[in-house]
Amino acid sequence: MSKVIIFDFDGVLADSVNTVFKMNKEAVSQINKTLTMDEYLSCFGGHINQRLAILLNLNEEEKRRLIEIKADLFPSYYRTQEVKLFSFSKELVVKARDLGELWIVSSSPRELIINILESYGLVDYFTKIIGQNSQPKNLFFQSTLKDKKGGEVFFITDTTGDIKEARMVNSNILTIAVTWGFHSEKVLKVENPDLLASEYNEILDFIKTH
C-alpha cells in the first residue's frame, strides 16, 4: 500500500509564526483594522481568510482587498532570511521520504515555499507542493484524496482548522497534530487528532506502524 504523507508548512516545517503574523497585521492595518496575535491564532480554527473576514467584520470589498494586500506583502516578509526551518525539519523530511510520497499543502505561496526548501536542499523530496492564498485546503483534498483508504494518507498540521478541512473530505485521513506550531497542545486536543506529537520522531514512528 502506497502512503501519502502531507505536510502543512508554516508551523510544522517552518518556524514562521511571528513572520506571518507581522505580515497579516500590516495587511489588516492597510484596511484600517487592528489584529492581535491571539486574535490571529484563533482564526486558524477554520480557513484563515474566511475567519479573518468574520473576526474583522469585513464586507466583500474589504475581504477582496485584504487578500490582494497579503499577496503583495508575502514576498517582502516570507524570505529565506526571515523564515527558517525548525532544526529537526530536514531530518524529518529525509526520513519520511523513506516511508511514502511527500506533499506540502500550505496557505503560503508555492514559489516562496520552494525558495526556502531549495535553500535547505529539500525541494526534490516532495512530489507535490501546493500553495494557496484564498482557496480552502479542503478543495484540494477533495480533488486528490477522496478515494484513498485508511492507512494511506497522513496529514501533519499544527491547527485545528486543517484537521477539520481534511476530515470534511475523507474520514480515513490520519491526522497528526504537532505542538510546536500555531496552535497549542490544549487547543489541538479538542479536535482529537490521531496523533498529538511533541517530538518529530513520534511522527515517524506513527507512520511506520499504520
Describe the structure.
The strands form two sheets. The protein has a six-stranded parallel beta sheet, with helices on both faces. A two-stranded antiparallel ribbon has the order 2-3. Helices cover 46% and strands 15% of the residues. The longest helix is centred in the N-terminal third of the chain and has 18 residues, at 60-77. The chain is of the alpha/beta class and 210 residues long. The chain is globular, with a radius of gyration of 16 Å.
Q: What's the arrangement of strands in the largest beta sheet?
A: 5-4-1-6-7-8
Radius of gyration: 16 Å
- End-to-end gap: 11 Å
Q: What percent of residues adopt helix (DSSP H or I)?
A: 40-55%
Order of helices and strands: EEHHHHEHEHEHEHEHEH
Strand content: 5-15%
Shape: globular
* SS element count, helices: 10
Nearest-integer average pLDDT: 90
What class would the helix/strand composition place it in?
alpha/beta
- The strand count comes to 8
Uncertain spans: none
Largest sheet: 6 strands, parallel
